[in-house]
Amino acid sequence: MTIEKIVNGSTTVLKIIGRLDTSSAPSLEAAVDACVAGVQELVFDCNALEYVSSAGLRVILKAQKMMNAQGSMKLIGVNDNIMEVFDITGFADILTIE
């Protein structure tokens, strides 16, 4: 997995490329922890996200909880396979997905 970070004022976009699984989730967690200070909007660009495991879901949920306290978070470019995971797990009900 590769993460590209784009900062635009108080908005930070993290583009996730590849598979978000047990081995790569700590990298995303570290990227989120390093960039959320002072951020009002966090965007996960999922256009190139191929797979998400329960470890990846945990990191996304943690990011959502952090952003609830200081701003907003959304996911963009979610493909059908990833959306199905969000639907089955109930994450679709708690995340903003565009």
Number of folding domains? 1
Q: How many β strands by DSSP?
A: 4
CATH-assigned fold name: Transcription Regulator spoIIAA
Q: How many separate helices? A: 4
Mean pLDDT figure:
96
CATH class: Alpha Beta
Largest sheet: 4 strands, mixed
Specify Rg, calculated over alpha carbons: 12 Å
Determine the N-to-C terminus distance: 22 Å
Structural class estimated from helices and strands: alpha/beta
- Helical content band: 40-55%
Q: Looking at the structure, what is the overall shape?
A: globular
Strand order of the largest sheet: 1-2-3-4
CATH superfamily: STAS domain
Attribute tags:
98 residues, alpha/beta, Transcription Regulator spoIIAA, 4-stranded mixed beta sheet, globular
Question: How would you explain this protein's 3D organization?
Answer:
The protein has helices at 25-35, 54-68, 80-89, 91-94, and strands at residues 2-8, 11-20, 41-52, 72-76. The chain has 98 residues and is an alpha/beta fold. The chain has a single domain, classed as STAS domain (Transcription Regulator spoIIAA, 2-Layer Sandwich), CATH 3.30.750. It has a four-stranded mixed beta sheet with strand order 1-2-3-4. The longest helix is centred in the middle third of the chain and has 15 residues, at 54-68. It is globular and about 30 Å long. The model has no long low-confidence stretch (mean pLDDT 96).
